[in-house]
Amino acid sequence: MTLVVDSLDAGYGKLAILHDVSLEVPAGEIVTVVGSNGAGKTTLLRALNGIIRPTAGTVKLDGTDITGRATEKMAALGLTHVPENRLCFPTLTVRDNLMLGAWSRGGKGDLDAVLELFPRLQPRLGQAAGTLSGGEQQMVAIGRGLMASPKAIMLDEPSTGLAPKVVAEIMKVLTQLRERGLAVLLVEQNVRASFGIADRAVVMQRGRVVLEGTPAELVELPEVRNAYLGGA
Ligand code: ATP
């Protein structure tokens, strides 16, 4: 098991948000976390990545306890976080944005492997990242995370604001990461897209895991269909 979260509590100052959250992401699997606005999905990724310090519970990566380690150490430990809003450095070139991801590995990253996943970025390596389309910027944000050769990658709503065709492209890349043996933890509002590729899904409500199963199992539940799939 690559990423194991056990009985995690976390929040902001005295404000408790996550309560007793447990989940597991095996190598070569995609686990998606869904839930309505404010359910605590982003907070979960922040707690896993050390941006906020869990108040209870543990996070293990390949058996190593990484709970509450400093964020800047996480990439070197093998955990990559692609935050919401596809943060790129707009005035830096695509190449420099990608190379920043290799920093935790002493500047050595496999640029060719990233370009193989995102061939669209090849002709744009010298272009300022701020001039890319939203989808291409998301590719840079994911590619930068991959430059650290992680064991596990966590993505926070990579599909936001993207056209369906680009969303499909991003989802396909996540399946390729699965094939390469990464553990993929995908937070998504676009449940149709994430259920389409995920091996397992976790539903969060008010900071707790309330349901889990395969997407096929969960779509059978009326409460899941009504809340996340428009009742369809
Ligand atoms: P969304 O889908 O809208 O992004 P989410 O499931 O990711 O929602 P979170 O962003 O984790 O939810 O928010 C969970 C709760 O934590 C919310 O009530 C939110 O107001 C609160 N929260 C988020 N960030 C902070 C912060 N920096 N300080 C205090 N409270 C916060």
UniProtKB/TrEMBL annotation:
The keyword Transport applies. The keyword Transport applies. Pfam families: ABC_tran (PF00005). GO terms for molecular function: ATP binding; ATP hydrolysis activity; branched-chain amino acid transmembrane transporter activity. Transmembrane segments: none annotated. Residues 3-231 form the ABC transporter domain. Keywords: Amino-acid transport, ATP-binding, Nucleotide-binding, Transport. One of its GO terms (biological process) is L-amino acid transport. Belongs to the ABC transporter superfamily. This is ABC transporter ATP-binding protein. The lineage of its organism: Bacteria, Bacillati, Actinomycetota, Actinomycetes, Micrococcales.
